[in-house]
């Protein structure tokens, strides 16, 4: 485990490492290529959410439940909006450094702070229900099944809190890697299992009632001489679809696991710190290099690969209609064809960049820019 400042520096170093391609001179981000626009995105509404991601490397992602979208900025401004028109339902200022946001479910909005706190708000009113202290900073949204709230901390611990009171029920200790990326993935919580990716390249599933491990699966094996070479964090979060758990590691693999047993269903070499999307029997991954790849789940072979956004520090991808949406460091939202990965549309959202995964609900895509711009778009 390394300290906050060193971890932040490491994040930048790793981004640079992805840029260098073993060259002595760092290559610049790829210039945007021209293409024939086939899809036009139309803005439905836009709102400012405080200071957004702030000046440090935060990964605050909004959350959608029913007809509302919830978002938080780095200073603790939390907002509930009507997701169809952007009208503000409630706004609360926690006046705390939020670093893990937003988790939502079962009447709660859940956030984590740099000071190692978990805060639960009433999703209808924004009123604070409880605050709990955990072992270290929380860099990803807490998750809940209505009975237990599960939090993953930067020191690779998983903590189960009582959803009604915030009291600690259990804690799972894990030994983090010597060097880790700045961040963690958000856990996934079902009625029975709490599943999380660790900095060691492992995925762990715990019994939600007592925190006892049910299964453990290694997705990536640290390789290389230096500690930097051996970083295999699972930072992009996990994706659950049906009974399959999708996971991507930095300098490791992208894989599909059976949720109940942890058995590897398929895997493929990859390096990603943002995560994957899934649709039409395919998996889409934003590589650390800036390449976006479409993978056939059945054969684990690449359907297509788009390397025209090299070193553009891409967000996690998201499936939107027949397309794959991904953001970049200059604030462009790119739409790629799910069939062959070609560019079909592009829209600039926030000149400070798009780091958070886009969210899709129905015919609308929601994009949270680094400066705090939350925008809802549809296909024209």
UniProtKB/TrEMBL annotation:
Coiled coil: none
CC per GO annotation: cell outer membrane
Entry keyword set: Cell outer membrane, Lipoprotein, Membrane, Palmitate, Signal
Main location as per UniProt: membrane
Keyword rRNA processing found: no
InterPro entries, sorted: BamB, PQQ_b-propeller_rpt, PQQ_rpt_dom, Quinoprotein_ADH-like_sf, WD40/YVTN_repeat-like_dom_sf
Function: Part of the outer membrane protein assembly complex, which is involved in assembly and insertion of beta-barrel proteins into the outer membrane.
Protein name: Outer membrane protein assembly factor BamB
Biological source species: Pseudomonas bharatica CSV86
């Amino acid at each position: 485990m390394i300290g906050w400042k060193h971890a932040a520096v490491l994040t930048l170093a790793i981004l640079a490492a992805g840029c260098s391609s073993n060259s002595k001179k760092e290559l610049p981000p790829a210039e945007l290529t021209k293409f024939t626009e086939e899809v036009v995105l139309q803005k439905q509404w836009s709102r400012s959410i405080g200071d957004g991601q702030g000046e440090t490397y935060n990964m605050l992602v909004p959350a959608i439940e029913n007809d509302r979208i919830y978002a938080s900025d780095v200073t603790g401004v939390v907002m509930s909006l009507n997701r169809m028109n952007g009208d503000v339902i409630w706004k609360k200022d926690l006046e705390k450094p939020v670093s893990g946001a937003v988790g939502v479910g079962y009447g709660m909005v859940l956030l984590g702070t740099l000071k190692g706190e978990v805060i639960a708000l009433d999703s209808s009113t924004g009123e604070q229900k409880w605050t709990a202290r955990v072992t270290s900073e929380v860099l990803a949204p807490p998750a809940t099944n209505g009975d237990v709230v599960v939090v993953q901390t930067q020191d690779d611990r998983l903590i189960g809190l009582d959803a009604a009171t915030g009291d600690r029920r259990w804690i799972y200790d894990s030994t983090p890697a010597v060097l880790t990326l700045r961040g963690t993935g958000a856990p996934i919580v079902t009625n029975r299992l709490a599943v999380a990716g660790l900095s060691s390249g492992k995925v762990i599933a715990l019994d939600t009632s007592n925190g006892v491990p049910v299964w453990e699966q290694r997705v990536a094996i640290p390789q290389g001489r230096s500690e930097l070479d051996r970083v295999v964090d699972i930072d992009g979060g996990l994706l659950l679809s049906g009974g399959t758990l999708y996971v991507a590691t930095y300098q490791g693999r992208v894989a599909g696991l059976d949720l109940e047993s942890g058995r590897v269903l398929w895997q493929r070499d990859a390096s990603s710190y943002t995560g994957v999307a899934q649709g039409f029997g395919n998996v889409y991954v934003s590589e650390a290099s800036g390449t976006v790849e479409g993978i056939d789940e059945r054969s684990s072979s690449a359907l297509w690969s788009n390397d025209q956004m090299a070193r553009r520090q891409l967000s996690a991808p998201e499936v939107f209609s027949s397309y794959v949406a991904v953001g970049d460091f200059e604030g462009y939202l790119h739409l790629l064809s799910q069939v062959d990965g070609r560019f079909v549309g592009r829209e600039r959202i926030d000149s400070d960049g798009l780091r958070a995964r886009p969210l899709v609900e129905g015919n609308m895509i929601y994009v949270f820019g680094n400066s705090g711009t939350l925008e809802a778009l549809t296909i024209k």
